[in-house]
Amino acid sequence: MASAESFHQREYVEQQGPAVRVPYFIDLKRPQDQGLNHTCNYYLQPEEDVTIGVWPPRGGDHRVELYKVLSSLGYHVVTFDYRGWGDSIGSPSERGMTYDALHVFDWIKARSGDNPVYIWGHSLGTGVATNLVRRLCERETPPDALILESPFTNIREEARSHPFSVASTQYFPGFDWFFLDPITTSGIKFANDENVKYISCSLLILHAEDDPVVPFHLGKKLYNIAATSRSFRDYKVQFVPFHTELGYRHKYIYRSPELPRILR
């Protein structure tokens, strides 16, 4: 067995209706087609009417490449599709996605013995990751560390900072009322900025300066909140920026030759 186990939170664009196949032309039942050996496809059932697909890795090319990096460092990587994405069954919601992550975490802990477990969240997945880790810390079963790649502060602030929103506010004075207020009133928060105040484990934040999806300043703002939080007084909080000239943008930090050193 390798020295550690981890699982990576999945992020895709939410759509309504039945399960969303993204990427559409990938057969999720055949992980071997993605170029990684010794990989099994299986399913977990966090709730009676919900089934989530699990295998390392599931999905896009950049995720596959990240998992290869982690695997080369001796980590076992467990990744999954939230309910409503890929071939997982169920309707997505913030509560449901967080519950799926909790179910996978408990499944891993039951099988990993004394090996450390690290939680990795990317983009929207950082919202699920901090929801999960806050809950784990509150029940006194924290992971060994939390890694947030391209995180935001909260979903409203991220939506407000998105390039589409920035452009729209110039021509649509009621943009906040029409688009952003319904997000808040619907109960969708993904409040990383609040969650980190209740997290008590080591935290590593990775963010590219040229990220066009989640602005760099949101990741830095989240770090500043965490670094001054009393919950981290006994734990390491680290922020690693990747300069614009590297071209890592929103999802290519795995290309950094420094990443293995950072993660060790």
From TrEMBL:
Biological process according to GO: monoacylglycerol catabolic process; phosphatidylserine catabolic process
GO cellular component assignments: endoplasmic reticulum membrane
Bilayer topology: Single-pass membrane protein
Gene3D superfamilies (alphabetical): alpha/beta hydrolase
Subcellular location, record wording: Endoplasmic reticulum membrane
Reactions accelerated catalytically: Hydrolyzes glycerol monoesters of long-chain fatty acids
PANTHER family per the UniProt record, alphabetical: ALPHA/BETA HYDROLASE DOMAIN-CONTAINING PROTEIN, LYSOPHOSPHATIDYLSERINE LIPASE ABHD12
Protein name per the record: Lysophosphatidylserine lipase ABHD12
Protein species of origin: Chloebia gouldiae (Gouldian finch)
